[in-house]
Amino acid sequence: MNKTILATATGFGLLAIILGAFGAHGLEKVIEKTAVETFETGVRYQMYHAFFLLFLGMWDGMESNRKKVVFLVICIGILFFSFSIYLLAINELTSFDFKKIGFITPIGGSILIAGWAIFGYYILRDKTHK
């Protein structure tokens, strides 16, 4: 069990619940429906990966240094992907045009994919567990 990973997963999960409620009950009155749906996509993927990190933190089937790599990649992916989506969704509420940084979203998605790929690679390359 890794307390750092579990605490981070808990934080991302808690934040996803808070942002999901904010999106459903606060944003629907001030931004367009498609923007709310976009916001909810960020929340959904953040929660998926919070669950992934919970599993990773509880699982004893991987070396600590490998877990750390997967953990860091997934956290960076969440921050780039979900948080850029949040900013893009509320773009009309701010004076800054977040569309200028919209290229971060697919980079974040690619980082999340890489995190899963690294996780799978480590599982397949593990010689100690069969």
TrEMBL record:
Spans traversing the lipid bilayer: 69-89, 101-124
Localization terms from the record: Membrane
InterPro entries named among the record's database cross-references: DUF423
Protein name: Uncharacterized membrane protein YgdD, TMEM256/DUF423 family
Domain of life, per lineage: Bacteria
Entry keywords, A to Z: Membrane, Transmembrane, Transmembrane helix
Membrane topology: Multi-pass membrane protein
Provenance organism: Flagellimonas pacifica
Pfam families registered for this protein in UniProt: DUF423
Family of this protein: Belongs to the UPF0382 family.
GO cellular component: plasma membrane
Keyword RNA-binding: no
Chief site of localization: membrane
The UniProt record lists the keyword Translocase: no
